[in-house]
Amino acid sequence: MQFSIPDWVPASARSKIIEYHSRAGTDPEIINFLRRLATYPAMRTEVWQKLPSGNEANIIDWAYCAFTFFPQIPRPLPRIKTKLHAWAVHRQKNIPFPDVSLAGDLASLLWIKISELKPMTDSDWHRLWQGEKSVTPDQILRTLEQLSTFYHRMHQEHQAFLDSLPKLKQYNSPAAGQKFFTQYVSKCIVKTTGRPLDSIVAALTEVAFDLSAGLGAETVRGRRRLNDAPEKM
Predict the structure, then answer these.
(1) No. of H helices and E strands in the chain?
(2) Which 3 state secondary structure label does DSSP give 3?
(3) How far apart are alpha carbons 160 and 155 in whole angstroms?
(4) How far is the C-alpha of 226 from the C-alpha of 181, rounded, in Å?
(5) Is 44 exposed, middle or buried, given 0-12, 13-18 or 19+ CB atoms closer than 10 A?
(6) What percent of the residues of the chain are helix, what percent strand, and what percent coil, each to the nearest 5?
(7) CB of 12 within 8 A of CB of 53?
(8) What is the pLDDT of residues 100-153, one digit of tens each?
(9) How many Å apart are CA 205 and CA 219, to the nearest integer?
C-alpha cells in the first residue's frame, strides 16, 4: 500500500479501504481518494466520532461507490454541438456501465438463425460437431433461449439500479461529481440509519474531493431535499 492507515481508523473501515485499494491497480485518482479517506484528520473528528456505531464499513462502501459510479453513468448526448467534444472525451476515458441487453438480443438472433438452419444442422451435426459428444442442436437452442432470458433479466436489474441513482441537470459542471456524491451517500445514510446526517456527508464530501473551501451541511441539505423532491409532471 502506498500510504499507511492511522490507528484511529475503525477496523471495519480499514479493511474496506485495503480491499478497494487492492482493486485500484495504478489508478492515481482512486488511490488518492482512498488515501484521503484513510488519513485526513476530518475523517477522525467529523466522520468517525459522529457516525452511528456499526456503519463504519458502510461509509467506505457508499463513498467508494459514489466516487466511482459517477464517471461510468451513461450521459445523454448533448444538444449543443460545442459540448460534443467534451462528451466524447469523457466517454473514451470512462467506460460506461455495459448494456447487457445486447448480449440477450444477440443470443435471440443466433437462436433464430440456428432454428432456420435446423434441418441442415441435424444432418451434419454428428459429422462436423467437435464439441462434447452429448451436446445436441436442441440443447444449443434451449441454452440460447435461456441465455437470452438471463441477459434481458440482468439488463432490467441494471436499468432499475441506474434509474435509482441521483439525476443531475448538468453532468459536465465542475461540481457535478460532488453533487452526485452527496445525494448518493445521503440517500444511503437515510435508508440505513433513518437520519440524514448532513454534517457527516459534508465532511465526507470535502475529504473525497479534497475541497479546501469547505462544503457545509446546509449545502448538503439543499441537495438532498432537491433530490427527494417529486418530479414535475
Answers:
(1) 11, 0
(2) coil
(3) 8
(4) 14
(5) middle
(6) 70, 0, 30
(7) no
(8) 999 999 999 999 999 999 999 999 999 999 999 999 999 999 999 999 999 999
(9) 11
